[in-house]
Amino acid sequence: MKVLVTGGAGYIGSTICSALEDNNHVPVIMDSLVNGSSTFTEGKKFYKADISDSKALKEIFRDHKDIEAIIHCAALVIVPESVQKPYLYYQENVSKSLELFKFASDSKIKVIFSSTAAVYKSSEEQMVTENSPLDPDSPYARTKITIEMALRDFCNAYGSKAISLRYFNPIGADPKMRSGPSAETPTHILGKLLSIYEGKESDFKIAGTNWPTRDGTAIRDYIHVWDLAEAHIRALELFDDLVTHENPYSIINLGSGQGTTVLEFLEAFEEVSGVEIARIDSSPRPGDTAGAYASGDKAWDNLRWKPRMSIEQGIADAIKWNRKVT
To answer: Which fold has domain 1-321?
Structure first.
């Protein structure tokens, strides 16, 4: 199957492209390269363009009339930045996605949307299911739920068909080292720990130690990026079984079913790297929450998917990728 991957030059998108090729599918990449890396497009069909560029979309589908689906990964994703620049995030994530969805609807192309489990309401239960209450805590997460709502409305009104995959924090790199994280100023925990590991930073700031978790530090759901990529392949290949005329829109969490606290992740990193990390306690950042982790029951029932790779493997692959690119 031929698939258009928006944001296919980014961290997750590029990994999905590799997984598509490994499963005998053909990715076509559309990426503005605002955050993506041209290196990840080498040897692939690539169009440097914005997702709202209707002229570019028409060119892509004129060149590739056999595209059957869009995997929509293109987005701005940094939570603190979204707090500071909400207009930018709503414009880039929401407004431009609407143009893409309109094109997909007019062309009768199915959509798989890369969403986030950060749309759920923080609660003491911490594990969320697809039916958990929604209350996103940051502009970034609110753009994602807004996109989901629009996508659902498109499906109900225009005969579109779509799946939203909600997940938290991807870690690691393509196990074959074809791609990996490329942010120059990482904001996620693993990127920060790698900076310390390389000697670029001196200590790790724990953003809050009084959260209602088992050790007081925030809890998150970390999933190897290759597991996430494989979930997208499953959703693509089973799409017609999951999404029908009667039920044109589906939401599926991609979760581990268990959470990992900041301290637990830090200890896992020290074990894998063999390096002791200096740490200091600090206040939560804008948009931070106690966190949650996602149930993977629906993903197993619908996709026969669950994470196969451990946090330690994700850390090891990230270290290996980091050595390759530095």
So the answer is: Rossmann fold (3.40.50)
